[in-house]
Design brief:
Helices cover 30% and strands 24% of the residues. It has 204 residues and is an alpha/beta fold. The protein has one domain: Maf protein (Alpha-Beta Complex). Strands 2-1-3-4-5-6-7 form a 7-stranded mixed beta sheet. Helix 4 crosses helix 5.
Length: 204
């Protein structure tokens, strides 16, 4: 029997919904996007991934009165003091597309030497029993790679065509979807969250 009958995802992203459904299918009977309940988007005013994920999860739980899950993720470049970080989706502007953000990334790489192009994708997942849950479950995943100027691959999204994985010999955009889901920052965070759900939300 599932630990949670219905969990609300604080996003309308169908890719995230499919990913979470596949990896949390044991402890969670059903995951529905917040758009199913017409939940308004929360303003991401936090300065960290944890803060933004909590904001989104509490917003979804408050509007639906159901357990909720949210993620916040992005690309961190140590040579740029961690930028774009929490602004990854908006690095080139509030309405920026992936193409806009990748163009800004290429501009930034011009000024970085080969030894300064290390980067990491980071994902933080938060799960709440209810909007006022004082003990949210928090799980994190980090995926390290090297940034390249010339994009490679048609898969994935975001900065994936520029995120090169030496151990795989390709970019994140060139990986098969199931392989990416296993290796990625979100895949790591989901695996960790599933373990915590099974351990800490189990009914007595």
């Amino acid at each position: 029997m599932a630990l949670i009958e219905r969990l609300v995802l604080a996003s309308g992203n169908q890719g995230k919904l499919a990913e979470l459904t596949a990896l949390l299918s044991g402890p969670v009977a059903e995951i529905v996007p917040q758009s199913f309940y017409y939940v308004p988007e929360a303003a991401e005013t936090g300065t960290t991934f944890v803060e933004n994920a909590l904001i989104k999860a509490r917003n979804a739980a408050a509007h639906t009165r159901l357990p909720a899950i949210a993620d916040d993720s992005g690309l961190e470049i140590p040579a740029l003091d961690g930028d774009p970080g929490v602004r990854s989706a908006r690095w080139a502007g509030e309405e920026a597309s992936d193409a806009d953000n990748n163009a800004r990334l290429r501009d930034a790489l011009i000024d970085l030497g080969e030894d300064e192009r290390g980067a990491a994708y980071r994902c933080v997942l938060v799960a709440l029993r209810h909007a006022d849950d004082p003990a949210p479950l928090i799980a994190e995943g980090v995926w390290t790679g090297q940034l390249i100027e010339t994009p490679q691959g048609e898969g994935g999204f975001g900065y994936d065509p520029h995120f090169y994985l030496a151990e795989s010999g390709c970019t994140a955009a060139e990986l098969p979807a199931d392989t990416k889901n296993m290796l990625s920052h979100r895949g790591q965070a989901l695996s960790a969250l599933r373990r915590r759900l099974e351990q800490e939300w189990r009914r007595p």
